[in-house]
Amino acid sequence: MAFLKDKRALITGIASDRSIAWGIAKAMAEQGAELALTYQNDRLKPRVEKFAEKLGASFIAPCDVSTDDEIEKLRITVEKHWDYLDIAVHSIAYAPREQLEGLFLDSVDRDGFQIAHEISSYSFSAMAKAFAPMMSGRNAALLSLTYIGSMRSMPGYNVMGLAKASLEANVRYCAQSLGASGIRVNAISAGPIRTLAAAGIKGMKAMIDHYEKATPLGRSVTIEEVGNAAAFLCSDLASGITAEVLYVDGGFHSVGFSEAML
Ligand code: 0WD
Hints:
Low-confidence stretches: none
Order of helices and strands: EHEHEHEHHEHEHHHE
Number of helices: 9
Structural class: alpha/beta
Shape: globular
Bound molecules: ligand 0WD
Strand content: 5-15%
Radius of gyration: 18 Å
Strand order of the largest sheet: 3-2-1-4-5-6-7
Number of strands: 7
């Protein structure tokens, strides 16, 4: 059963074939969704064009979420192609590299804090505001990607942990704002995956290695596993689920200490 048949999905955040958004796009296409993909800048455009071709996406469009103008342009483009939207995926995060090194208090500053929160959290509300009118009354779904560094301190994650905490609250408040319009709003908290974004975080390799000892599944997860969970959460099968942060992390979030760590 293709459980996203007749659904139209807008997917942001594909930067490479390791991107979580690529895993999500593949899973949604497999489940029958019609796709549109965005790219952050001209450098990424040819890459995203190829990805769009592979999945038979209807169109691609630029969007750097750091300005309202670009988000508005994206909304206009999407409206030109489609008269409704069922799914919008926000798979975007950014903090200046120097924010992701050393101890939090040694690296955080006003600019870094503002940029991390604006790109990684505010842009989700901005997307929700822009696309809610096209999604209204359709059992539609908005989805973002978060990480457990929002709840627990992680080496090098620093201000991004604060931005993810904000993003998770953002999901709950957007869910409250949009529930009456039949729009569900959720996030997936993924285990660590080697992507371009993860490469910027010092200690990521050690953290992924640690997962082998620390998770019930004995490993971290793949972009395909996150993609399948995303496809489910954005489908009618999840019609009762909103304001939720779903952990797709091999069970890491549940563990205090494991046998393998003794
Ligand atoms: O371990 C991981 N990789 C995890 C990632 C674990 C848990 C959560 N996540 C989250 C990330 O925080 C992010 O929210 O998943 C989301 C996707 O991250 P990813 O797939 O790991 O990373 P990547 O493939 O790098 O895609 C993120 C993309 C950017 O890539 P780069 O590496 O070029 O910064 O986000 C996009 C960009 O394409 N992006 C933007 N898009 C539009 N406007 C912007 C922007 N201003 N900034 C970054």
